[in-house]
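pinned: reference chain
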Amino acid sequence: MVVHSWDYGCTIYYGWLKNTGDVSYGRLNKIPQPLDFSFFQLLAPIVLIVLTRFKMPVSTTFLILATFSSSKTLEGMIKKTFTSYLLSFVVALIVWGTIGYLINKRRTKIERKMTKLQEKRWRVLQWASTGFLWSAWLAQDNANAVVFLPWQVSGAQLIGILCFMSAALAYIFSKRGGAIQEIVTEEVDVVYVKSATLIDFVYALILVYFRWLNDLPMSTTWVFLGLLAGREVALRATIHKDETYRRTLMLIRKDLLRAGFGLGVSLALAFMVNTQL
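pinned: its structure tokens
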């Protein structure tokens, strides 16, 4: 937890220095600075907490930022998000399909039981990949929190943000991710160190690519769901051939329905705030 708090602090501080006080990494460039907040904009974070308690993989980007966005920006966010889901799905098919093929052909030792030294090395790699993912995710999603703050924050405000968010992180880690964590643990073999390391690394690379693509906000939740869906299909087709696709398709459908419901709620709040949408 201490390591991730330092990672958070360094990422936000770097963004603050590089972008002259903007800790959103430019994700709010297409969204005008609000002079005041409507009831539904303030309601959005509460709705987010409620939906998360019901294990809904809700996109904070849509639920929070959609209420501040114009129709053009919102349309761009939706297109970018759906594109990221499809790309993540295809990338996961290729990566885990290749791994499954190599395992079947006995050309890789990745599935063998590790010695204590090997496990220690993989733990180090997992920490590194998680730190990489954490920084890449913050560059995309920190805008969801700071949209309620001034676009340019002072040094004192930055310290306040870091202290508050570090305390929030400590609470989340103490709850081990809460109810929403079950969305991840339903998938195949995600709790093993090798699997977790590879998922983190691929996920982070996709987020870095879309951050480089343009400064439009997008849903990192849909990227993650696409990655897990493609991975599930690839593993079912290569390693778990004796099992049916029914469970895999049910998991994918359930995740899409949950995320789709959250998107619907987000758009409904956005329409209530901005009738021009």
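why pinned: Residues 2-269 form one domain. The chain has a mean pLDDT of 81.
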